[in-house]
Amino acid sequence: MNISRYPIIALALSGTLALSVLLSGCTKEDSGGSSGDSGSDTEAATGNFRTSCGTVVNGELENPVDPGDGVRGALTYIGPNLISIALKSGPQLIKLHGLDEPYEDWKRSGAETLIKSLIDEGDGYLYSPGADCGFRLSDGGQGVIGQVFSASGKSFSESLIKSAYANLGYDSCQGGLISSCYSALEEETSNEIAGELEAFLWKPVSDSTGKLAIHTSPYDTIVIVNGETGTNQGPGNGYANLARFNKPGCAYGAATVRVVNERGAAYMFNGQPEIKIPDGCSRWKKVGNSLQRNVK
Questions:
Q1: Residue 117 and residue 102: Cα distance in Å, rounded?
Q2: Residue 59 maps to which CATH number?
Q3: What's residue 10's pLDDT?
Q4: Is the pLDDT of residue 1 over 60?
Q5: Which helix (H) or strand (E) holds 112?
Q6: Are residues 261 and 224 in the same domain?
Q7: pLDDT number for residue 43
Q8: Of 162, 190, 218, which one is at a domain's C-terminal end?
Q9: Which one of 71, 80, 93, 261 is CB 3.0 to 4.6 Å from 126, fit for a cystine?
Q10: Which domain holds residue 86?
């Protein structure tokens, strides 16, 4: 991982803002005040934090975990698997336990949006899987491996996996305690989420049939409009697939479109499994992260 991509880390590694590396594991005594609090004040939490796979704390798998046992502090987004927590001794860089950095752009973008939404809940909680759970970036930056929870008790790692924005990785620091469960969770997610929709074009009147035609990418997509499944015609006009329908686009009105793979898993658009077409009579195209009208 190239640290130059994360200027906050580079800043924290220099001068008086030197990153506090706690290679012996984070402890509650490292914190104090509203930033880096011990977690004993859990006004934002409602009970213990339960997850699908549990949390490794000091070498043991626990489920649920007590907010009072975590290190509490203000969180900052650094990367798709990197968080910073404000401690009394300075900012602490955290790599999320069991996750590697995703390389796909759509995963990175989705992870950033999701993580920032969790951070917006307020101060989060850090749990260390054990002593000497440190890591080093390729550029020399250092930090700790850990589990991070939002103020309301949502696991950052599991939230990313369940949204298909994570790449799994095995951490030697007690990683075996969660790796098989994380793999099962990822497989379960793949049955619901196929990935990101790469391209989409709604043509209300096809040149050849006079009826609705929808172009999509990637390959082998199945397009469903208001519950009606289109007939797949294969590649066309620079798109991986063409789906034809029995009526012109106007007949579908304000339509709901689902694009799925052969297993029924949805291709996502802006984090949603459906595309809302405001007016079926108009031409609509995916341009970047938006749906635009009458784009040729």
A1: 19
A2: 2.40.50.90
A3: 38
A4: no
A5: helix 105-119
A6: yes
A7: 37
A8: 190
A9: 71
A10: 3-190
Q: Any bridge partners for residue 142, and if so which? A: 136
Half-sphere exposure of 175 (CA within 13 A, CB side): 18
- Specify the pairing of strand 90-96 against strand 142-149: parallel
Angle at 154 between CA 148 and CA 160, to 5 degrees: 75
Total of domains in the chain? 2
Q: How, if at all, do strands 199-203 and 284-287 pair? A: antiparallel
Question: For residue 107, which phi and psi values (nearest 5 degrees)?
Answer: -70, -40
CA–CA distance from 238 to each of 199, 204, 230 (Å)? Answer: 10, 18, 19
In this model, does residue 134 exceed pLDDT 80?
yes
pTM: 0.76
Q: Note the pLDDT of residue 37.
A: 41
DSSP letters for 40-85: ---TT--S-B--SS-EEETTEEESSB-GGGSEEE-EEEEETTEEEE
Q: Is residue 187 classed as helix, strand or coil in its secondary structure?
A: helix
Among left, alpha and beta (phi > 0; psi -120 to 50; other), residue 213 is beta
**The domain boundary residue, chosen from 163, 190, 217:** 190
Strand partners, 276: 256
Q: Confidence band (pLDDT; 50, 70, 90) for 197?
A: very high
CA distance 137 to 208: 56
CA distance 85 to 115: 13
Q: Provide the token pair at 217.
A: 């990418």
